[in-house]
Amino acid sequence: QVQVVESGGGLVQPGGSLRLSCAASGSILSINGMGWHRQAPGKERELVASITRGGSTNYADSVKGRFTISRGNAKDTVYLQMNSLKPGDTAVYYCYAVSITTYWGQGTQVTVSS
Q1: Residue 67: is it exposed, middle or buried by C-beta count within 10 angstroms (0-12/13-18/19+)?
Q2: What pLDDT, on a 0 to 100 scale, did the predictor assign at position 31?
Q3: Residues contacting residue 54 through CB under 8 Å, at least 6 positions apart
Q4: Helix, strand, coil tally for the chain in percent (to 5)
Q5: What does the longest C-alpha to C-alpha distance in the chain come to?
Q6: What Rg value do the Cα atoms of the chain yield, rounded?
Q7: Burial classification of residue 114, based on how many CB atoms lie within 10 Å of its CB (0-12 exposed, 13-18 middle, 19 or more buried)
Q8: Residue 65: its pLDDT value, please?
Q9: pLDDT digits (tens, 9 = 90+) for 53-107
């Protein structure tokens, strides 16, 4: 079993920055990769960014050049640095960890508004 907990969401003005954190606990040695999805009201959940155990990263086209995913030294923590935020980035952001199955966090709200 793996537990996933996100933090760092909030309200930010357009053009601002936020950093989301995600910590996994439990059977962390079984984790092959972690990442972030987001879901805006009335829309389907979509991949934002992911990182493998080896450090390879992948980003949605809509966030390339603005968002950066990284891992902590302990390898069971990932961060999502979000810069140049737009109103279209408003969503609930979910962290996930891939092991035998995929484990999801409870989500953290990010609102970009003036």
Answers
A1: buried
A2: 84
A3: none
A4: 10, 55, 40
A5: 42
A6: 13
A7: exposed
A8: 97
A9: 889 999 999 999 999 999 987 768 999 999 999 999 999 999 999 988 999 999 9
Residue with the two structure tokens 């389907």? 44
- Per-position DSSP letters for 85-109, written without gaps between them: --GGG-EEEEEEEESSSEEE---EE
pLDDT beyond 80 at 24: yes
Cβ partners under 8 Å of residue 65, min gap 6: none
**Nearest residue to 38 via CA among 84, 75, 82, 71:** 82
Q: Kindly list the distances between the CA atom of residue 87 and the CA atoms of 7, 29, 113, in Å, as whole numbers in the listed order.
A: 20, 37, 6
H and E: helices and strands count for the chain: 0, 11
- Model confidence at 34: pLDDT above 90: yes
Residue 95, Cβ neighbours under 10 Å: how many? 28
Residues paired with residue 78 on neighbouring β-strands, in sequence order: 22, 71
Cα-Cα end-to-end distance for the chain = 40
Mean pLDDT of the chain: 94
